[in-house]
Records
---
Amino acid sequence: MELIEKLNWRYATKRMNGTKVPKEKLDRILHATRLAASSFGLQPFSVLVVEDMEVRKKLQPLAFGQPQIVEASHLLVFAAWDNVTEQRIDNYIQDVATTRNAPLEALAGFKGYMSSLLKNTPEHNFNWAARQAYIALGTALAAAATEDVDSTPMEGFSPDGFDEVLGLKAKGLKSVVILALGYRDAEQDQLSKAPKVRRAHDKFFIHI
Amino acid sequence: MELIEKLNWRYATKRMNGTKVPKEKLDRILHATRLAASSFGLQPFSVLVVEDMEVRKKLQPLAFGQPQIVEASHLLVFAAWDNVTEQRIDNYIQDVATTRNAPLEALAGFKGYMSSLLKNTPEHNFNWAARQAYIALGTALAAAATEDVDSTPMEGFSPDGFDEVLGLKAKGLKSVVILALGYRDAEQDQLSKAPKVRRAHDKFFIHI
């Protein structure tokens, strides 16, 4: 696998050309995102896949007018659970029982272990859930690169504004980070040719 | 690329067999981790690569005695900056200038934009830095899978304890998440054969 080559090819694309990502590529990127690891396997977040242009036009001013919002093929919005609730844990335990053909009683210990989360504040749990979403973001970025699809992870937007437009509050979700998927407009994007800047190995890693 | 197949193969390995990950594979996993995206490209974290068994034996009781700590080949400790400082931004700007052969004056706007981080509290910046580290964790997980190397992301440890053993405070770092790399002990690990549990596509994604 030439993952390193693909990761070197990708960059935070500032301008995209509106070309659509073929459905089979998008499906594979989403599938990989859904397979991302999360603590307990709980996946305490959802991912919105926004293609509708009217919605994206409403989102754009809430993201400092950044052009990728409308020039992308699809916009992924990673939205973390506003809190961990008993219902959400129960749903997951039910999924585990069904998938693994295990009796619920056998999962009581695992469930009790997870339920320790319920003792935390909603804010603590939300921040924890947001970190889990970032693992999936990292996986999605790698998956997009392997499909030769450009991507731009973006934190520069109003989470409250996005939540309002996307109706997330009613779903118990809060947007934390977005990822534009599409194809670079190399002529318009002066960063498309810029060498990637990364800290040198010996300044980034500490070997013990 | 068969990334999905690799991601389906991986799971949070509970028992490892001590086999060493070959150097060229480890190097590629680390390289991919270093190429992970981060906001502004700032990479506000470091990654410790812990191989020394004496150190790992000291860490194990600080991670609830989990066996992967010593059964792994290497233990990656993702450690976020305790704060964003002017010095750290300056170092990065210098890296950008060198890599892109750009005069520092041309980077003043970019630097000013990043400096808005300095107005936040250390706690806010640390939490932001931790999220960036989680993007790299997601990338590392994908990279390990593509190398057929097992991995276990772990949050169940004492960050303060790890920071103490690893001398992180003096480096302005705080451990946030760890990743054991190695090879599964399929006989000892009853989860090695368990079907992967992930929320169904239509419950995980919201298409708009």
---
Amino acid sequence: MDKVNLGQELSRLDSCWDPKVVGELNDHQVKIAKFEGEFVWHRHEREDELFLVLEGAFDMQFRDRCVTVSQGEFIIVPRGVEHCPRADREARVLLFEPAGTVKTGDRER
Amino acid sequence: MDKVNLGQELSRLDSCWDPKVVGELNDHQVKIAKFEGEFVWHRHEREDELFLVLEGAFDMQFRDRCVTVSQGEFIIVPRGVEHCPRADREARVLLFEPAGTVKTGDRER
């Protein structure tokens, strides 16, 4: 029952697209990650994913549109929906998803 | 797949201790709430709860200690653990918990 300071945890992150688990509850995990550049197109068969922007902004690309998510905003990507995050400049993001979610979903990276 | 702006949602909150659902994923809900004053001692038999402070600070009281959680910090209260949030000044908090979680747990309010 210790608290977690997101700023401290963010300062310890090294590489981009490499989420770190900072909390667990029920069957879910809280992760933080740095986004910069483009990730990979993928989808999750069984997991909805939440992305909350802590600093900066990124584009969540879908096959038919793109949503820019900025600091203080979140987006939920439903299971089965193909997506690919992209950030022109470094963004810092909190993720919430079921434990065991593979970051590339149905795609190897 | 629309994004949610937490600032906008927070500006629409009226009363304290009255969480509003702003997102749903898997079997969980994202809620926001204003905390001011003292809530009620309670516990949840089956649900872990996450509290992330968006603005201000609050004290999460446990029977044996108290943890002050400030902006940019979160705390996870495990199932079964009695707790009572308290805020001397208004705090704005994001909650993450299973859908159907009763805010007062085992206690009427």
